[in-house]
Amino acid sequence: MSSDAPLSGSALTITAGGYTAEIASVGATLRTLRHEGRDLVVPFDADEVRPAFRGAVLAPWPNRVVDGQYSFGGTEHELALTEPSRQHALHGLVAWTDFRIASHEPDRAVLATTVPAQAGYPFRVEVLVEYRVDAEGLHTTITGTNTGPDAAPWGTGPHPYLVGGEGRVDDWTLTLPAAEVLEVTEDRLVPTGLAPVHDEFDLRSATRIGDRFIDHAYTGFERDAAGVATIVLTAADERGVRVTFGPECPWVQVHTADHVIPEYHRAGLAVEPMTCAPDAFNAGTDAGLVVLEPGASHAASWTIAAV
Predict the structure, then answer these.
(1) What is the pLDDT of residues 289-307, one digit of tens each?
(2) Cα–Cα distance between 177 and 271 in angstroms, integer?
(3) Pick from 23, 2, 42, 22: which is nearest to 263 by CA?
């Protein structure tokens, strides 16, 4: 990145089929996504430090590693605590990395970086992020490849804040066809167990979000014959945005973006398809943790499109 680049990193624009996406190289971040001029995600300015994780790539884990501690391959590891208020390691190691631009075409951009072996994560993984637009929306694929000598724990996901339309989260209607929700402690969001969706967490039919607070992971999705699940967020005019994802993402974190900063507060709904559950580095393969053998790759994809 040159010294005169915007604060969010080198800027890339791709466009096709009525969609325009702007990508920032820091965090391989989806900075804006518009369909025929309408925002589908909460944007931020190119010459602005990205607000929190808005649009960032999460790898080599999404969500939290509780207390920053986990065991893998018979060895105990301790990660830096990047969520000080809750004392967890949050959202991986590449969200503030300046990715290199591997390729850039009018409708496609590929960014890459390598997670170096380091304290807490002594594994080397190459991360490749492809963004592509066409008439069906913005397609994203994240691929992790283990270039080190030892097996590595792996998980990934995005962090877009979706925009349903006019207004804020309270005004929008959400359809989230998931049968189970991961319950967590109120103070630190530590997972306590999987439960059938209930009360305010049951959003299997179109439901106005209202003032409910959600910062939970869902699983057990209703899927079509190809294994694709669909989450839909709409405004009063029935226009909005949808996210589709395949079976490589069995989990989705949803957050109503409650924030102490007024302009951030409930401005968009975080919908984060994930290859694994929160704290999967401790919960293991039953929670979706991918074990990347040396030389092996794992890819996960999703699409954001206008409704």
Answers:
(1) 999 999 999 999 999 999 9
(2) 13
(3) 42
Task: Find the angle CA(84)-CA(168)-CA(135) to the nearest 5 degrees.
Answer: 100
30 touches 23 (CB < 8 A): yes
Whole-number Å distance between alpha carbons of 211 and 39: 23
| Token digits of residue 216 | 């939970």
Q: CA neighbours within 13 Å on the CB side: how many for 217?
A: 27
Under 8 Å between Cβ of 182 and 194: yes
Residue 167 C-beta-side C-alpha neighbours within 13 Å: 16
- The 10s digit of each residue's pLDDT in 254-271 is 999 998 788 889 999 999
Contact present, 44 and 245 (Cβ < 8 Å)? no
Contact 302, 244 (CB under 8 A): yes
| Rounded-to-integer distance, Cα 284 and Cα 173, Å | 34
Torsion of Cα atoms, 199 then 205 then 274 then 68, to 10°: -10
112, 128 contact by CB (below 8 A): yes
